[in-house]
Amino acid sequence: MLPKLVITDIDGVWTDGGMYYSAEGDIMKRFSVKDGWGVIFLRELGIPVAIMTRENSQLVQKRADKLKISRCYLHVGDKLTKAKEVCEEMGITLADVAFIGDDLNDIHLLRAVGFSASPCNTPDYVKREVNYVTAAHGGFGAFREFVEKILADNSMLETVLQKFM
Fold first, then answer.
1. Residues that bind Mg(2+), according to the entry (predicted)?
2. 26 is known to lie in a ligand binding site
């Protein structure tokens, strides 16, 4: 079954988990453009994406704005509680949600959703909690691979890809 909502962590999933600082103290993050295609594929099917991150980063908000992701939740300490709130607003349950996360603060939500995943460079104790582990590292297309897995499992991947070929 296709999820009715896809939730994603950012650092360690869309990024390599590193924080880069300039000499002036500016913080930078490296995002893979490959992951943007995952958002586009889901949008083609009318499946919303929500970002949930513990960080309070305007860089994440800028990436969300560029990809037209309206549900961008920054500085979330308890992702499970926030996800329940979002589900209630949408009239869905956690069983209708797919989530990809990569670390300890994601485990409770990873355990609660209908389909869960983590990048391959996630700690083993997190990987044991998920339904799928991507071959891609966080920051190198893990989110897109997660989306393509969902679509392939529901016989929708080729249909979506044909719209762009």
1. 9, 102
2. no
Rounded mean pLDDT of 131-147? 97
List the domains of the chain with CATH numbers: 5-162 (3.40.50.1000)
pLDDT tens figures, 100-129: 999 999 999 999 999 999 999 999 999 999
Q: CB neighbours (10 Å) of residue 78? A: 14
Task: State the DSSP code for 118.
Answer: E
Q: Is 35 within any annotated ligand binding site?
A: no
**Cα distance between residue 30 and residue 50, in whole Å:** 19
Rounded to whole angstroms, the Cα distance separating 117 from 136 reads 12
- Confidence (pTM): 0.95
Burial grade of 129 (CB within 10 A; 0-12, 13-18, 19 or more): middle
Taking the C-alpha atoms of residue 48 and residue 70, their distance in angstroms, rounded to an integer, is: 9
DSSP 42-84: HHHTT--EEEE-SS--HHHHHHHHHTT--EEE-S-S-HHHHHH
The answer to whether the CB of 43 falls within 8 A of the CB of 65 is no
